[in-house]
Design brief:
Radius of gyration: 34 Å
CATH class of the largest domain: Mainly Alpha
Number of helices: 5
CATH architecture of the largest domain: Orthogonal Bundle
CATH superfamily of the largest domain: Cytochrome c-like domain
Helix content: 40-55%
Strand content: 5-15%
Largest sheet: 2 strands, antiparallel
CATH topology of the largest domain: Cytochrome Bc1 Complex, Chain D, domain 2
Number of strands: 2
Strand order of the largest sheet: 1-2
Shape: elongated
Number of domains: 2
Mean pLDDT: 86
Amino acid sequence: MSNHSQDPLLLDHEYDGIRELDNKLPRWWVWLFYITIIFSAIYLAYYHVVKAGPLSAGEYTAEMKLGNELKSAAMGKFEAGIPALQPAADPVVLEGGRQIYTKFCAPCHRADGGGLVGPNLTDDYWIHGSKYADTVTVIWNGVPAKGMITWKSTLKPDEIQAVASYLYTLRGAKLATPGKPPENQTPVKTAPSGFE
């Protein structure tokens, strides 16, 4: 032990010339520490012992259930209104539909709609119906038997309407290279300019 002058706050031991200072913590800090201990005890009793309140996992489950109910109601409302939908003619909506089509649909239907794995969208041989509502329904529900996924879990209703509206502009398009041949379907009559 060294012969340093004794400060009442210094303890009587040292290590490598370092001495420990016995300084009391501020009272506000000590009370804050006590409050956190009391809070943690109450929290433990309330949520884990008595189980009077839901844990964060339970709150998440309840919120997800409520969210799914709201989503299902909105989707049901949209599905019920599909027969009354009409294709949009707004250039902004059509451009949005073209961008979505290019990103998600072109790999199967070709960028110009001529068809690859999926059918040709520019001719009059529409497999699942030629009405706008038929197109929206096919995009919404997909055609799992033919490998087309349902898009209602990926795209919003307004995005699906934008894509369906864009598809209507492809009807009767003159393709630079021949499109996929008709798939043994009876041709359907399309309305002037692709709109009904």
